[in-house]
Amino acid sequence: MSEQFDPSPRGVPLKSLEDALASTTLNAFRKGDALIVEHERLVTHVDVLPPANPEWETDPISAVVTIKTSLPDEFATFLDKPGIICHLNSMTSLGAVTEEDGQRFIGSRLTVYEGEDAWNIQFPLILFTIIDGPDSFLSAGRRILNNGPSQDGESEWTEADFEFVQSRLSDICFCNAGGLGLTAEFGLKSDAVTAGMGHHETALWQIIGDQPHPELGGGLFCLLQLPHQIEDEAQLNRLVGELNRMEMAPHDLPPHFGAWCQGNLGNNPAYVSFLPNALYVASGVALNVSVWAMHRAQWADKMMALLGAR
To answer: Left if phi > 0, otherwise alpha if psi is -120 to 50, otherwise beta: which for 126?
Structure first.
């Protein structure tokens, strides 16, 4: 008799994920409160964990889902090159190359709260991360080595989608939308509103629909840039690597489907993710990632201070 597992440990629908993966070429099977997914060359572990602090008073956490694709030793020489992990993460879709306890993996995390009903967005995010994560890493590596042709394609997101996000964000921050794009600023201090007023302690948030991913084609490009400037590149790479590691902790944190890397200033930390067109079915996901970005900016500002960067 086959071993029976809880179809939804801690409320996380692992059985539904397993069933959805049955229509793909991937081999998925349960192991306790985990789903193991075998790709052609790599293996992904989806683990349902208890929270580090189950007694959180305001928003009790019911579960933390980590998605980790281990990177074998054969990639060590490539990944050991200075700055290569940061470069790979700048080309990410929904996960970050992360190092923890000497192990390297592609990592994503979802914190699930009691009474939360958001699986219409969370489920497709997890599913696509499982399916695409390893291929995105391998493709990014090939692109760095070979500089092959980029994918093209129009985004499923429309001007109306960006206007909707602006209508909601404008109540809490300075933002504007136009065409297939939106720009917002999140104040990191109580009196910081926008750089246009001379405020330097704001994080810049952009979602863009006309910037295809080089491997995935059309979708929604998401970029959060912190104002912190780190002149030493090696230190910046260490800091963003530490932020990616901290994002995997089973804590009260916004969903981690992206990666910290080097920002457009060249010396600032940034968080990048890309939602492929397949995720357009997750109604409201553009607004959700924008709200997550606001909370992530506040968290990261505090973490940068703890890490010695101002």
So the answer is: alpha
What distance in Å separates the CA atoms of residue 163 and residue 274, rounded to the nearest whole number? 19
Question: What are 195's two structure tokens?
Answer: 């750089």
* pLDDT tens digits, 212-235: 988 888 999 999 999 999 999 999
pLDDT digits (tens, 9 = 90+) for 20-79: 999 999 999 999 999 999 998 899 999 999 998 766 566 799 999 999 999 988 888 888
Model confidence pTM above 0.85: yes
Instruction: Read off the tokens for 254.
Output: 């916004």
Quote the CA–CA distance of 308 and 223 in Å, as a whole number. Answer: 23
d(CA 235, CA 269): 11
Token pair 């489907």: residue: 257
Beta-ladder partners of 276: 219
In the block, tokens 């009474």 appear at 115
